[in-house]
Write a sequence for this structure.
């Protein structure tokens, strides 16, 4: 069992530390765009996000996967490891974490932008 845990980068990492590290590096806006979870979009805070992530396994798995494969930039797991939750995956000893991926927030489209694009389109010539 200790052999498996030694090869798991999430072993010993608390969810709060993981989330704090992600927020400090990327910010809430990038997290909300990269991981489509409402607790990152509306009034995000560490406390409320932790409460949600602790109760919701699928959301916690998304955040842990983002941490491993975007922030730590480990290679994607094989098919067998992919079936396991991120905390149970074993990473080969030769795979080491790299510097975090650069992810920038995309510019939000405002309602006015959406309607201006719609209005600028010319109606097609209708045939009688």
């Amino acid at each position: 069992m200790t052999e498996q845990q030694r090869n798991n980068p999430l072993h010993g990492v608390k969810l709060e530390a993981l989330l704090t590290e992600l927020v400090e590096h990327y910010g809430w806006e990038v997290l909300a765009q990269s991981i489509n979870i409402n607790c990152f979009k509306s009034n995000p805070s560490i406390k409320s996000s932790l409460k949600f992530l602790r109760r919701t396994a699928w959301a916690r798995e998304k955040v842990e996967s983002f941490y491993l494969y975007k922030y730590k930039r480990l290679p994607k797991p094989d098919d067998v490891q992919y079936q396991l939750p991120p905390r149970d995956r074993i990473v080969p000893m030769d795979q080491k974490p790299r510097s975090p991926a650069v992810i920038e927030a995309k510019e939000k489209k405002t309602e006015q932008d959406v309607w201006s694009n719609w209005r600028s389109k010319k109606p097609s010539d209708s045939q009688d």
Q: What stands out?
A: The chain has a mean pLDDT of 82. Helices lie at 2-6, 15-26, 28-34, 46-55, 57-71, 79-82, 111-120. The chain has one domain: 2-120.
